[in-house]
């Protein structure tokens, strides 16, 4: 029974249960919950790293002596202590994996008081390291369940498919049985149904030990699980006593096999599959890590709709709903132990880390989507302990983890990323290649992967990309050779070479579109490449980036922190997605400028065979999509913009004759803005009843300054409140301008009084706006 609703919360770090019980300032809430939902991304340095208490009354009208009762936490970050009716029932270390607390001995009939102390304090003995590039959210961040089972029950089932081919398969089920009274008349029945729900095999055996094994051989012509057709069988294990069913457990089963070819590509079910991947952090605007199941599913569906077939769960195991989604949608999974930075630790650290790895593998073992257990990321970087970056010591421990992983699971591969000294220990290795962002140019990408394909037997490329600020655009983004060209208003006398785009680049959507387009151009045309995994799917919050364009946000996402796609999302979709679409770059670039008769290259990202672009009602011709061409697979046109409004329409046609279209209106001017001298504020009412307040930087001629990128600061003085601390393009009170524009959403207070807003920055005195509320 899910028990997420009607909890009480106390922000008090006392270790003393009685002190918590006596406290008066409890507040009510529903789970999942984190106390860092907004303070992680507010404008104050740091975030709360401390303990809090939760409490709930659970009414158990009748206690059955033949039942055992437990509380199951899907995730509680970082350390958890559980008290039932004043007594400690159990505890857990580690915030990203589920755990069960037996409460049978502590409960009574009627109301039961549950108190839970959760602590995310700074603790170098528990991974991930505090030096990681993401927030360590505190709280009960996932679902909680009250579980009751018959005293004789199935504790766990472990499903393995020892043999799989297109012609036949076998399946082995190891069931762990709890039988405290050593009952002699127990039997176990395993039933397997095919994806259509038809029973194909069943077997019953007597139970005489703590584990029972049943094997089904020669399952003919199995319907295979793959990324296109994720066929799932249903397996049910039932425990009977005297022929009466006392417990039943169901799991989904996928029949598949895979192989990383030596120095070559990846194969799934005997066929080459180019890994098309992305990364996913478990967090969202407004809720932090305390996401709902619907929000988890929305992320995974969007990843699949983009056409991805692989997701690296960064940098920790995620909500059970995520694995369920990957199984059902057909997404291969890299599941990661949260050994992220911090180096090698002491003996307590080692014990905690080993325990966590065992928990991860044992809990997630049955998911056919998982193919890799990652043992860590950048592990010896920024050590927390003296001599923590000692490679010799690190390798000894990494070897121990590798042995644990293979002992617990013979069927999957181990991996690490960016710890070169241990690359020979694991099965699959990812070096660090950030071509065109932290170093080098993106056009050097082929050279980099050719080197690593030879160097590492099983090489995969995880993490590439760069930051982009929604609405930030450049008529001349940095080129693939790392050159900043002149803007085109005058002769290009000096061109600037850039060594580190992350520091000196424009953070425009245009540059990132070009970078991703080139990476995909390479990976999609290399028959010997295993594939790559873009970093990261959504913008996410991090304590290490207070000065980013949106403070405390890593803006490398293909979507913003709410999951709204940026331009780059459509680049991936054009290479990977099946559902026909066209997208004119860019829908967040509707105000442009340039000298007269200066043609601009317009790219259309589409997966259609042919695309026609028209400008102000005149066709600019039809082009054939060609995977060998860059940029945009050849779907580019030179457009001579007219002064004022320009209407662009792209019509894509599939091989089957189906058409899809996209329309973009661009306001173009031939005169360049001068230096910004002031801000202008305006507002529009949104469909949700809130108001979007927009600040525009203008020059002396009242022209929008499309080259202005300084930060602007919003404040609501009266009549409402800003939607702040969201880490989104319209949800931060401090944000750098995108082509001279910044916005924030404002929530009226319901009084009917006017909303009063100010916006200011270091250059301009504050501007004031009064909004009459409807």
TrEMBL record:
Domain DUF4982 positions: 602-660
Pfam family, one: Glyco_hydro_2_N
InterPro entries noted in UniProt: Beta-gal/glucu_dom_sf (IPR036156), DUF4982 (IPR032311), Galactose-bd-like_sf (IPR008979), GH (IPR017853), GH2_Domain-Containing (IPR051913), Glyco_hydro_2 (IPR006101), Glyco_hydro_2_cat (IPR006103), Glyco_hydro_2_N (IPR006104)
Domain (Glycosyl hydrolases family 2 sugar binding): residue spans on this chain: 50-148
GO molecular function term, any single one: hydrolase activity
Keyword Hydrolase recorded: yes
Glycoside hydrolase family 2 catalytic domain span: 262-475
Keywords, ordered alphabetically: Glycosidase, Hydrolase
Domain Glycoside hydrolase family 2 immunoglobulin-like beta-sandwich: start-end pairs: 153-256
Family, per entry: Belongs to the glycosyl hydrolase 2 family.
Name the UniProt record assigns to this protein: Glycoside hydrolase family 2 TIM barrel-domain containing protein
Protein source organism: Flavobacterium artemisiae
